[in-house]
Amino acid sequence: MQRIEPTPFQERLLAVPETYNLFLGGGRGGGKSYALDFLILRHVHDRGHTARVLVTRRRLKSLVQFTEELRWIFKNAFGSFQFSQADNTFRVNGGTVQLAHCEDSRALADVAQGMSFTLILVDEAGEGPPIETIDQLGLSLRGQPPLRMVLAANPAGVNHSTLAERFVTGRTPWLPFEFAERMWVHAPSTVEDNPHLPLEYRKNFEVLHQTDSGLYQAHRLGDWSAIVGEFFRTAWSPRLVFDHHELPPDVFSDLRLSIDWGSAAPCATVLGGRTVCDVRLRDDRVIPAGAFVIYDEHVEHDPHNMARGTGRTPAEIAPRLIEMCRRNRTAPRGAIDSAASARTAGANERTITEMFRRAGVQVHPAPKGARVPRFELLKQMMVGGELWVAARCKFWLATVPGLPRSPTNPEDVDTNANDHALDATSYLVAAANNQITARSW
Fold it and tell me: How far apart are the C-alpha atoms of 101 and 36, rounded to whole Å?
């Protein structure tokens, strides 16, 4: 037997009452995974035969490693336990601890449908499964209170923007806050909180510091605001963000809407155009003539989940777009995803594009072309200082800079990520640059 001692960070985490859900959102090497082990250990010790624990990771290989850690923990804590490899379940101190890799909603049905748990832990939540799947896992928390959900994640990954918006931005670490009628605590840690790691591990961060300062701040210091996604890492800069009050609408040759339609997914609309002259900002930065500017936005998304749409119809959304155009002194017209003009139910079906037109928003299909060239053009515009974004475009800034690459096509954005504002931006640029649609534009 070996004596198991938690680190000071893990002790502080264990001191948080079980009535609070936990988000472990620090940097790499902070001891989050072993903290989950200790939370499980205490839960099965205190709850005995009523303990029902579920642990999920997206990748099977990393789940196997976590299983071995738990096996060691239980052996030292209880001396004996049972483990069923068939269903990957520990039976210890009368309770059960089930481990499952859960990549998507289909896997969720196998993992949790019809099951009841008193503690659910999602490790590596930034990489997956999708936020919708994680939220559905929470529906399996049933039984005698207290019931708890615990998420652990490093900055970056496909869920970065949603996790940051929910649990990090504007939250004071270790102070309880309410989200979706549940109480949460953000419990961050960094490599400094883990005395068990050797000095060589810490030195690895210094190499990252030289190659990518943003990733260094995110992974070494746990700074969720510093991360710039893999796709736009070399192109995007916070210096391309400005206060819209410094740029009146009359400096644009035209302001136009661009819509990436979604119902189950967010419906993202940006309002933007080209500048007709150089504009010097108060801090001496210059937005050059001919630069594209994302000047305003309206995005239909679930207030608790930036990756989920509201289900509102074009007739319900159109008045909000008309109002956005009115306050920016322009007409409600522009481009929309060409897929919105499809008639999937037959020739007599009214398309999304036609619904917007009937509601007073005059949009035409964007000549978008292939995804990769569109996004490569946006990169070039960022590098050249030809694409600027108003600070009031919160959804755009929360999603686009942090987008990851596609795991199957490094030249493309991961299509599972929240790329709706990016798509709307690319339609805006494509429509303005295309000579064929110049008359409608």
Answer: 16
